[in-house]
Amino acid sequence: MGVFSELQERGVIYQVSSPELERALDDEKLSIYVGFDPTADSLTVGNLLQIVTMRRLQLYGHRPVFVAGGATGMIGDPSGRSSERNLLSEDVISYNLACVSSQLSRYLDFESSDSSALLVNNSTWFKDMGLLEFLRDVGKSFSVSTMLQRDSVRSRLGDQQSLSFTEFSYMLLQAYDFYQLSLPPYEVRVQFGGSDQWGNIVAGVDYVRRVSGKTVFGATTPLVTKSDGTKFGKSAGNAVWLDPKKTTPYELYQFFIRSEDEMVGTYLRYFTLLSLEEIRELEEELKTHPERRSAHGALAFEVTAFVHGREEAIKAQRASTLLYQGRLDEAPKDILMLALTEAPKIEIAKETLAIDPVDLLSKTPLVSSKSEAARTVRQGGFYVNDRKRSEGEAVTDADLIHDELIVLRRGKKDYCLVRVI
Ligand SMILES: N[C@@H](Cc1ccc(O)cc1)C(=O)O
What's the complex ipTM? Predict the structure, then answer.
């Protein structure tokens, strides 16, 4: 199967600038670019589809070029945004740029000779360009009436939302990037982006044709959503980051393992390098043995391994499996701590032991009163180190695991970690 058909079967192609793109991708080895603006100090799972798609193209022998938007980040892309952005300070942008660039350089192969990835900052060509030169050489090729028809502009003007001249100009910068990248030494022929980038990408395709007569291509990927069409990539209202200091590998793993059943196949096709055949088998198993959660496990594992490496993925998988099976008492300490990342933690003094189960439970945020604690224990919903603990059976030194920890659980999955000091 050619790479284009594979991308189509995976559902990764939303729009293309020309049907010729298929032949070009199948018959030639091309340089292909995607750009990221340094709007934050880390990329998010929202950027993952672009990154994995680049990796896929690289595996077929194409050369990925990542553009870090040192210049475009100073302006702010209005695409897909309903209101004007606040400008970021230059210090923040250069800090973010360093973070994002170092992240990007981890996901692809930058070493193999032919299809080695490349990372370019678009300040390279903008930093010495003067305003008059820009307006004369670039601006002259753009028709305001065409620009006004782009979705990114129309939606803003239609909503009576303001759109500054600064953001209105963004499209020209991205189009000019495509032109610069089409020249040696890059010789880029294709730009990928999310569906909100369509206007900017087409502006670039048109601009390159106008200035140099060359045909370059653009393609967009669909918006990734949840099954109800709402935004994907938030966990408890927070962004899911690719930086392990902001979202740990375990949290990333948990985010994906909690994917909705209806979406798991789609996410496997989008975000993993598993073959379509393997994915079909996982989808089949999801139907026949949903309780095994194999498809979810594979998705979480593959994404975590892609972003953070296999070792982290294996640890996250072990922790998650032990948590799911209610067997944390058997886990090594680092895995136990990982599995309880999201659980509340309390400390009690060693002298408190032995302690009555109801007294211990009522010290935790798992219950809000002593009577609730008593009821929970009486009804058999209280577990110490994943074993049921009944009324009157005191918690003692003998319950310590790893010398200082006790794992409490209420019901099926509400944990609290106790450190005995
Ligand atoms: N405009 C893109 C980022 C980008 C920047 C420069 C480019 O040349 C291409 C893409 C975004 O906001 O996601």
Answer: 0.99
- Report the separation in Å between the CA atom of 119 and the middle of ligand 1, taken as the mean of its atom positions: 13
Phi, psi for 106 (deg, rounded to 5):
-90, -25
Query: Is it the case that residue 20 has pLDDT exceeding 70?
Result: yes
In terms of DSSP bridges, do strands 217-221 and 188-194 run parallel, antiparallel, or are they unpaired?
A: parallel
Closest CA to 147 of 165, 160, 122, 131: 165
Residue nearest to atom 12 of ligand 1 (CA): 77
Ligand 1 binding site (Cβ under 6 Å of any ligand atom): 35-37, 67, 69, 72, 77, 122, 174, 177, 197, 200
- The answer on whether 174 is annotated among ligand-binding residues is yes
| Fold assignment, 234-325 | Tyrosyl-Transfer RNA Synthetase (1.10.240)
To the question of whether residue 186 is assigned a binding role by annotation, the answer is no
Mean pLDDT of all residues belonging to the chain? 95
The fold adopted by the segment(s) 345-420 is: 3.10.290
- Is residue 413 over pLDDT 90? no
User: Which stretches within 109-150 are classed as H helix?
Assistant: 123-126, 131-133, 144-149
